[in-house]
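User: I'm curious whether this sequence folds into something compact or stays loose and floppy. Could you predict its structure so I can see for myself?
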Amino acid sequence: MGSHGRRPPESATRRDAEWQVQIRTAADRLPALVEYLRTRLGDDVPEIIASQIVRRRPDHLSWVDEQTRS
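Assistant: Here's the prediction. I'll summarize afterward.
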């Protein structure tokens, strides 16, 4: 899903393409994922929002844990 964002750098307003991406990972893998994204996005100030899911199916939780470790 693409959209356009406005960010005011030091002296001017730019219009850049902006993408929203949703990634699921195990809680203990979040710091590594955030660091990976921050070093590779090439954005001046990437917005990274992390939400903890407090309720979901246990089999899905197990699947995410398995997939993030293979």
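Summary: The beta strands are 2-7, 14-19. The longest helix spans residues 30-40.
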